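Table 4 source record.
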Amino acid sequence: MAQPDAGFRVIGVLYQEFVVRCRIEGLAAVVPDLPEFRRMLTRARAGLGSDMAGNDAWQDVSARASLLPEDMQGVFMMIARAAKEGWPCPSDAAIARAYGSHSLRRARRLLTYIEEQRLIVCQLDGGDGGR
């Protein structure tokens, strides 16, 4: 995910590159399968570290996220992290990137969908125009 375009590449290609790099580093015996790689990628796109996985609060967030399609779960977790940390809501650009897209409109539609699932509530802050 450190490469600038990695967030926008096809998961299959990212997985192949990941496997090759693991082999180069001598880690071929511990390479996750594709479904586990998808989960790892979702957490990485959302900016979540592996240390959060064991936290009870994050297990609840993960359970709620599992109600969404797999490609949307990282966005939900990113928003949940911002809320937990008291940070502002991520920008449309950050949401789009976590979703693997450049489209700000797609990011806003994604938020609408997650809100329709009753997992978040979106409100505009009248003071500074933030969400």
